[in-house]
Known about the structure:
The protein is of the alpha/beta class.
Amino acid sequence: MRQIEETGASLRWHKLLIALCPLWAALPVQAERAPVVLLTINGAIGPAVADYVHRGMENAQKQGAQLVVLQMDTPGGLDTSMRAIIKDILASPVPVASFVAPGGARAASAGTYILYASHIAAMAPATNLGAATPVAIGMPGSGKDGEAKSEKKKEDGKADKEGPVDTSSTMTRKQVNDASAYIRSLAQMRGRNADWAERAVREAVSLSAKEALKLKVIDLLAEDVPQLLKRLDGRKLKVADAERVLETADVVATAVAPDWRTRFLSVITDPSIAYILILLGIYALVFEFSNPGLVFPGVVGAICILIALYAFHMLPVNYAGLALILVGIAFMVAELFFPSFGSLGIGGAIAFIIGSVILIDTDIPGFGVPLPLVLGLAAASAVFLFLVVGLALKGRKRPVVSGREELVGSSGEVLEDCEREGWARVHSETWHIRSAVPLKAGQRVRVAAMDGLMLDVVPETHQGA
Length: 465
């Protein structure tokens, strides 16, 4: 109520000033400034992050935002997801400012490409960028030795002492050349240091924030988003062949948090989760086929397999690995049916492990299936198949204890004297019986056949004839 009263008082003063001084009416009224949208990337860049950025930029355009701030702290990510984000930035009618923050953050590998593609590149103090060589081919050596070299390069920001990335193979040269040409084209488009960008790809060098500003890799430094917006106020940008002037000094950025769709995608596109889902779906279907009629395992299995296949569609999956997993499971199941003396089971377990290891075709951190998880699930798979499916097979070999098959051959007692047809008690039930010979009450008979609800019986003394 108080705010309404103050607003009314302001309007009355405004009308009074207009009446007293006509020149007051000619003064422009300050319009509300366009909003600034803040998107945040934390962690590896994958399909979920690409979808989040895409929809966030679409919403920013619908809101009439003057700027999108993309705050990053990432070790890199998938090439396909990185290129999808860059395409959105290049096609966006709203300028994008990539900001490596907070202090201690990094924009390594894919983050460096995104930084170069943005209209504005900014970093917070105590951050770094670089090491943009494709990870699967760019870090020669393995184990501790290779990791030590990589860390040393990141620390001193130079690769001359360590030597350039090994480009001995044709495929390595092709991928490195493609990546270096790509980032150089982005640097030339935005007027940034193209030579250093190419070194970041070919030699895996890194830079601190101050060095990046000095070498014209980025445009400015800022402590946080509010300071970034103040420093961008009045800056002219060329977007879609049109020049825009930012008015961000007094604007508070509107943070857009990931919604349920992004969170769901981030869960199912985790390679470990997708791997567990496909196995859970397969085992549920195996259990359903072993015990027809349960329905629930079949429903759960079908849903898990479809979700896993959707996740695999967005991940760099090696389908030879997926085929080896299926073959391994099939061999382990076949071990229960055929007397192979363990050869099928052992071969299936080996195929299962190899397929699981090579399932995700990338070495990017955060996008691999951990080896302990593979070994644990391989052991659990063998136990599941040998126990659950084995118990189902043993159950099928047991003698029938109910139904038509069990009734034939059962013995009973005649309830009354009869010539051809009469009544007898079989399994504590009264049945209509038919016999070729006369029967007396209390005589023991055995069921020879069943015709609808009529039992054909013979005296037990005649059973051996």
